[in-house]
Amino acid sequence: MVYNSLQFIFVYPFLFLLYHLIPGRYGKARNMYLLLVSYALYVSWKPSGALVLLFVTAMTYGVARIIGHVRHPKRFFTFGIVMAILPLLVFKYLNFINETIQHCLSVAGWDIRLPGLNWAVPVGISFFTFQSIGYCFDVYKKRIPPEKDFLTYALFVSFFPSILSGPINKASLMLPQFKKKRPGLDYGKVVEGMKMLLWGMLMKTVVADRVGLYVDTVMPEYQDYNGITCFVASLLYTIQIYADFAGYSLMAIGVGKTLGFELTENFRRPYFSYSVTDFWRRWHISLSTWLKDYVYIPLGGSRCSKARNYFNIIVTFLVSGIWHGANWTFIVWGLFHGLAQVVEKMLGQQKCNYGAVGKTVKVVITFLLVNFAWIFFRMPTIEDACGLIARIFTANSSLSVFYDDPQTLMLTVASVILLLLKDVRDEFYSDKMPLMNSRHLVVRWATYVILAIVILLMGVFGTDQFIYANF
Questions:
Q1: Which of 69, 284, 324, 440 does the annotation list as catalytic?
Q2: End-to-end distance of the chain based on CA atoms, in angstroms?
Q3: Most buried pick, 7, 25, 250, 410, via CB within 10 A?
Q4: Is 324 an annotated catalytic residue?
């Protein structure tokens, strides 16, 4: 059930009401209801994928129980991690591995082709696999005890607000919430969750999908447009992927709140970052936290020589690139972010001590670096990404920027300005102009109605797929 679909608008109120009709003292009944809903929704997305979800859930649950009861758990832990990650490798990366092998063999004149399974990739497999592996790692390190109740653990892995595209929640955050007695309807949380849903819907339909119309017109056919137009398209894709993914995350967290749960924060205005290092403290926070806890720190983190620390950073972001997709473009994107952070550390630029003007300059530089990295993320091949970048820097006699018509241009500019104003307010004036959080009832409801009208008038509907649903 995609959040910006009519299905969600009509179905979720019934799911919400049925959940809250179950008395809070019947926590297990509520959990069973949420588990059934989570699997029912997952089956509606990808029926065959539910078997993979159940396999990963059962495997990591069983291994974690064994780890908690044996004296030397390393072998069981290794076995569990391998088995949990195996479906991800088979379904998501088999085509990529095949193509790489074929390319290498073609040098020797051999042509061997194997069938791939990318067409059958289970929805959200990267997210629920990493979440399950994180749980096993925490049990192995004795940070948390193994969960005894299989149904509670199965709900943690499959919880429908976040299984499609995250956030990647930690077991230490979610399992206690599932296990404790929850009160009846928490009005404060429901209201807060609905606010998140409203703004997340606006980010997706009004901003992401509207600028996406321009991006999807220019970037696939970049050879037909001048450098300025290509650069504008790259900037708009930077806006699109932020509004799309942050909008989804906000809606997921909002749905969780309406049910009484606190999910992991995932975005904190990343385009105000003053370094690439700072960017990863603000962008996809749940993934960057996962990478830090389960890749970077186990490799040695920063408690080692400088050379080893730089190596750890590169490997961590190589994993990030591979996690995002089975394509060399994602590997280049991940390595770029890793190398950028290494350079920042070498130059002592991961922090900012230059005052307001200096920080502004660093924010602009970081934004442009991230923007050009997104080109590799968006384009289908490295050749296309390099071609688009070359096109941007190609001198052209025409200084005009392509646009469809004045009305579309006006709506696109207005949507970007609206997002910018909201982020500026949240970043620098969080205690000013509390429109949706105003003490005055009229101000709050006037804001809700205006935002709903903006969504209806400016939103682009019908493009219901979230970008990160592909990962």
A1: 324
A2: 17
A3: 250
A4: yes
